[in-house]
Design goal:
Chain lengths: ~475, ~300
């Protein structure tokens, strides 16, 4: 944002650390191979619309090959390798991620549009930590509470979104490998680059061929992968709509499924909350990663008696957010990941206005090229408004008010989603009372958007099922004992 | 129930009307329909209520109404109630043995053993109510100044297609783990052997189990199960007793609101085996709560 308050000089992170190839093949059986039918697509930098690289589009025969490679690795090496040995490969991968952390952070910001301070300080540390965490589980599975002799499931098909490309990869691959499964993973079509560098990291780690396979492509590729006869397990993070379709595809089969889907989280601010901290939490809750966060605090529920004060301070705080070059170390709000996503954010915001809510954004100059949307709040929102019901997946906050704690709970739970929620209050008993009543998989009390490999994450209701992270995260990758 | 024994004496027996169990009451099917239920020899035993779509929906409404109170009851209280169920079943041990024998056939001793196992299983789950959170919950050692913990919570309303063969032991083996953790249920009893299920509800109704926690429907699985599978206010679906031919369609219907689905086994499980904790944790959600540490 063109803040008059604090003029800053540009402080761009150097791009010299990344070396992007002009084109990438598919990573199958331990090496990069050309796609069978030769189709490709381009991945661009959403902040500049410049083409970063040409990416292979995996077709049916490529998926066959990748699944066959994963099966061969499962049967031949990985499924029967001792946990102690598997662990060491995962530790190696974790270490190499740390070694190449800055490079990966820059690449993530280039391909995704997220601010470098987030990819550098949030995504990458969590990615490495996730591999470290699950590496340690690989030889301790019999102590995890899932039976005396836990076994892997087999070949896992994993489809991940574009909002935290490498972090979602880590959440999928680390527990899968720790439990002895092999994987075929499809990154999102707009953010394939860090997954392809991860393939290189698997090579550097000496990971046996076929344990990790990376196939790139769009929705069709994902559909072929999750529906493939040769996979035993499907893990998906993305929209509820696609999650539903996958659940139907797998119906009547013995394939296991875990889903991490959409959300419309309530962030509840009680009248005794420390207002400045709550405002920071509201800002972090919805503007972190441009609001491209399934657990974003996209519905602010503020107690009526403090609503004016909270909103005044929120507007003031929003006026200091810096929007622009994702690689600038001072940037708070980066680029929207794709034109399609920008169009959806615009459409729902326009609907919000048309339905009678009041829209506000700080004075804000948007860069001429690339995809941008200013931090936005809507006040006067009712529960019937589409912006209070549908996931916008952008930097748009809907503000509702409440009078009593019961009303806050009623409104917070009035959604088919149930991924996360926030509560801000100074009173301990009220925190626990509220947390107890919220039907959501993660409740952040006097904080928001915190993640850790040891902390189970996942939703209630239509936000999906299964947990990622912690001991709980192992369950999705272990065969059901009889 | 086979009533011959009583009928053969000089006194004319008083037979029981087998009705549904919804919201703590025993209504007939709103449809007015019944279907004849035979005993293991194929002789007429009773006219059971033939539940309709409306009955299924009424049962879901009752289960939703009961969810708040039951899920919020203390685990200790839920354990007390379930143990009371076992006590009341024990008092009706002979009646259950006769009904199970009539329904399933075989040796009377085997029926009695199944009843004993069923009562013991209720006791097993009664004891689990206040332990499951300690076994599957966690304090999470996150890398930051936060207290972070995870607790199991009930999924919500679970529709259960009860085992087709094991009319009482199978039934309590699928039902008790689901309500022990605070879910409320709509159960579709064994289509061919529904009578012990209705007698079980009489034990439930006199055990301080709040009305609506368990709702029992009798009727055709192929007719009623699809309505439960597609119902938007049902959160979980246990297909243990569903015919394999119906499984896929039921699971597809369940996906519309992303119900948690427990798939049927290829063959009905051996219910006499140690149940483990698998069914206890099937319909649980994990809630993780973060709070900063500081002064």
């Amino acid at each position: 944002m063109t803040s008059k308050l604090f003029p800053y000089s540009p402080a761009p992170e150097s791009q010299a650390i990344v070396n992007i190839a002009s084109s990438y093949g598919l990573f199958i059986g331990g090496e990069f191979v050309e796609p069978d039918d030769g189709e490709t697509f381009k991945t661009i930098n959403p902040a500049s619309e410049e083409v970063l690289a040409e990416i292979s589009e995996a077709g049916p025969r490529d998926i066959d090959r990748a699944v066959a490679a994963a099966r061969k690795a499962f049967d031949g090496v990985w499924g029967s390798m001792s946990g102690k040995e598997r662990a060491k490969y995962l530790f190696r991968i974790a270490r190499i991620i740390q070694e190449r952390s800055r490079e990966l952070a820059v690449l993530e910001s280039l391909d995704n549009g997220k601010p470098i301070k987030e990819s550098r300080d949030v995504d990458l540390p969590l990615v490495a930590a996730h591999f470290f965490y699950y590496a340690g589980w690989a030889d301790k599975l019999e102590h995890a509470g899932f039976g005396a002799n836990p076994k892997p499931i087999g070949v896992a098909a994993q489809v991940i979104p574009w909002n935290f490309p490498l972090m979602m990869l880590a959440w999928k691959i680390a527990p899968a490998l720790a439990c002895g499964n092999t994987v075929v993973l499809k990154p999102a079509e707009t953010t394939p680059l860090t997954a392809l560098v991860f393939a290189e990291i698997c090579q550097q780690a000496g990971l046996p061929a076929g344990v990790v396979n990376i196939v790139t492509g769009a929705g069709e590729t994902g559909k072929m992968l999750v529906g493939h006869e040769g996979v035993d397990k499907v893990a998906f993070t993305g929209s509820t709509e696609v999650g539903r379709a996958i659940a139907k595809t797998l119906a009547g089969s013995r394939k296991r499924l875990s889903l991490e889907l959409g959300g419309k989280a309530a962030n509840i601010v009680f009248d005794d909350a420390p207002i400045d901290e709550a405002v920071e939490g509201i800002v972090g809750g919805i503007f972190f990663n441009q609001g491209h966060v399934c657990c974003a605090g996209s519905r602010l529920l503020v107690q009526e008696s403090v609503a004016d004060e909270v909103l005044d301070r929120l507007r003031r705080r929003m006026s200091t957010l810096r929007l622009g070059d994702p690689l600038d170390k001072n940037t708070d709000v980066g680029a929207i990941n794709s034109y399609e996503q920008l169009a959806r954010i615009r459409e729902l915001s326009d609907i919000g206005e048309a339905e009678g809510a009041e829209r506000w954004s700080p004075a804000c100059e948007l860069p001429e090229r690339g995809f941008w949307f200013p931090p936005t709040i809507f006040t006067g929102v009712t529960q019937a408004h589409r912006i209070a019901r549908e996931e916008i997946f952008g930097p748009v906050l809907s503000v509702l008010t409440f009078r009593t704690p019961d009303e806050a709970i009623e409104k917070a739970n009035n959604t088919p989603y149930g991924l996360s929620a926030g509560v801000w209050t100074d009173k301990g008993s009220r925190i626990l009372w509220t947390a107890d009543r919220l039907r959501a998989g993660v409740v952040w009390a006097n904080t928001f958007n915190k993640f850790d490999p040891a902390s189970p994450f996942g939703g209630y209701k239509e936000s999906g099922f299964g947990r990622e992270g912690g001991r709980h995260g192992l369950e999705a990758y272990l065969a059901k004992g009889k | 129930m086979r009533a011959k024994k009583t009928d053969e004496t000089d006194r004319i027996g008083v037979r029981k009307t087998y009705k549904l169990y919804i919201g703590g009451a025993f209504p007939r099917s709103e449809s007015g329909r019944t279907y004849p239920v035979g005993d293991s020899h194929g002789d007429f035993a009773a006219n059971a209520a033939l539940a309709s779509r409306k009955d299924a929906r009424d049962a879901v409404v009752a289960a939703r109404a009961a969810f708040g109170g039951w899920s919020r009851a203390t685990a200790y209280n839920r354990g007390q109630v379930l143990y009371r169920v076992a006590e009341v079943m024990e008092g009706r041990r002979d009646q259950f043995a006769t009904e199970v024998h009539n329904a399933e056939g075989g040796k009377p001793d085997a029926a009695a053993a199944a009843v004993d196992a069923a009562i013991d299983r209720v006791v097993w789950y009664a004891g689990w109510t206040d332990k499951v959170a300690q076994v599957v919950g966690a304090a999470n050692p996150v890398a930051g100044p936060f207290f972070d913990f995870s607790v199991p919570e009930p999924t919500g309303i679970v529709a259960i297609v009860a085992p087709a063969t094991s009319s009482l032991l199978g039934l309590v083996s699928v039902l008790m783990p689901v309500i022990a953790t605070g879910n409320t249920t709509v159960v579709l009893a064994s289509e061919l052997r529904p009578l012990p299920a209705i007698t079980l509800t009489e034990a439930l109704a006199t055990s301080d189990l709040p009305g609506g926690v368990v709702n029992m429907l009798t009727g055709k699985v192929a007719e009623v199960a699809p309505w439960l599978a597609s119902h938007a206010d049902v959160n979980g679906l246990d297909l243990t007793g569903a015919p394999l031919a119906l499984w896929r369609d039921l699971e597809i219907a369940a996906a519309d609101n992303l119900k948690r689905v427990r798939r049927p086994d290829d063959v009905e499980p051996d219910w006499s085996r140690d149940p483990g904790t698998d069914r206890l944790t099937t319909f649980l959600e994990t809630k993780t709560v973060w709070h900063p540490l500081g002064v």
